[in-house]
């Protein structure tokens, strides 16, 4: 029998829209860049967190998807974070490179440089919610739901965490692909890896939106 | 001087990504750190880069920033005296 995981919520950001548990939460077909798109989601969430504007895009999308998962949830400091992507922090790495390309105009920006690691995104989420649990950011060729879910479940099974926010947050140039789940020990819907992979592959509810 | 103060406010907002703040929200004598604009240590480093890049002022000791970055007015006074571009 296939192993089942307790998933309380899942959030996806793709194709100019944000989905929570398969339902459209926010749509924006007018923003032509990641910064404006992220700002629109931030406004929709009615957050008051000025540090958001200082984050790089990878942090912003990780932060926003986490906020959507945690809406109306009791925050637990033992929530672990297990993320993965393909492009690492490449968007910001390129920005940093631009500031140091010209020896005659060599002004590396500290505010950009601090985001040249993908796991900084986990730090931003942890700071916001005062999480003190395990976190890991893997760089993989593609979203491997089996790897991420098994790693996250191991944290729950070994009492390293009470809940886990886990999944995929990939950004490169103006492309983005975000799919995070809120995994618990026994709350939420029981979902197999196969079902979760289907949800990810089926555009996160976009089909139901069109129906 | 008034022109430099306005220019500085614009550069600070832009450089430090203070998107919810307008030039008119910043009083010339507001503290930049702590209770004022609430800037952090990375912002302080960014201001040091701004001084060098925009005004040719190189701070050899980052601790100097504590006195220089008290407020926009204090920054403008310092820039007027020490700018090389």
Helix content of chain B: 40-55%
Structural class by helix and strand composition of chain A: alpha+beta
> What is the averaged pLDDT score of chain A?
93
Major beta sheet summary of chain A: 8 strands, mixed
Strand content of chain A: 25-35%
Tell me the β content of chain B.
Answer: under 5%
Q: Give the tally of β-strands of chain B.
A: 0
Overall 3D shape of chain A: globular
Please write the string of helix (H) and strand (E) elements of chain A. EEEHHEHHHEHEEEHH
Mass-distribution shape of chain B:
globular
Description:
The complex is a heterodimer of chains A (211) and B (85). In chain A, helix 1 runs parallel beside helix 2. Chain A is an alpha+beta fold and 211 residues long. Chain A contains 8 helices and 8 strands. Chain A starts with a strand and ends with a helix. In chain A, strands 1, 2, 3, 4, 5, 6, 7 and 8 form an 8-stranded mixed beta sheet that branches. The model of chain A is unreliable at 205-211 (pLDDT under 50). Chain B has a single domain, classed as Orthogonal Bundle (Non-ribosomal Peptide Synthetase Peptidyl Carrier Protein, Chain A). Chain B has helices spanning 2-15, 41-55, 64-68, 72-82. With 85 residues, chain B is mainly α. The mean pLDDT of chain B is 91. The interface between A and B is medium-sized, with 10 and 14 residues.
């Amino acid at each position: 029998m296939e192993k089942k995981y307790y998933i309380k919520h899942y959030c996806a950001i793709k194709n100019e829209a944000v989905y929570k548990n398969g339902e459209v939460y926010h749509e924006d077909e007018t923003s032509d860049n990641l910064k404006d798109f992220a700002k629109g989601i931030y406004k929709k969430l009615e957050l008051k967190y000025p540090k958001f504007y200082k984050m790089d895009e990878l942090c912003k999308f990780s932060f926003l998807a986490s906020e959507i998962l945690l809406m109306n949830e009791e925050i637990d400091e033992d929530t672990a974070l297990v993320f993965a992507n393909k492009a690492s922090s490449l968007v910001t790495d390129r920005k940093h490179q631009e500031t140091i390309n010209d020896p005659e105009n060599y002004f590396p920006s500290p505010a950009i440089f601090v985001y040249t690691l993908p796991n900084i995104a986990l730090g931003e989420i942890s700071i916001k919610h005062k999480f003190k649990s395990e976190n890991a950011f893997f760089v993989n060729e593609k979203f491997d739901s089996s790897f991420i879910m098994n790693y996250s479940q191991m944290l729950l099974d070994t009492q390293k965490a009470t809940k886990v926010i886990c999944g995929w947050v990939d950004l490169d140039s103006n492309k983005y692909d975000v799919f995070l789940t809120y995994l618990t020990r026994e709350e939420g819907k029981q979902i197999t890896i196969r079902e979760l992979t289907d949800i990810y592959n089926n555009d996160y509810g976009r089909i139901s939106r069109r129906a | 001087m008034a022109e430099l103060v306005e220019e500085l406010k614009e550069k600070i907002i832009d450089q430090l990504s203070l998107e919810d703040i307008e030039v008119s929200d910043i009083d010339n004598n507001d503290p930049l750190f702590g209770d004022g604009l609430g800037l952090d240590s990375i912002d302080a480093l960014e201001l040091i880069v701004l001084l060098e890049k925009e005004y040719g002022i190189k701070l050899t000791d980052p601790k100097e920033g504590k006195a220089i970055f008290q407020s926009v007015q204090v920054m403008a006074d310092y820039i007027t005296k020490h700018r090389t571009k």
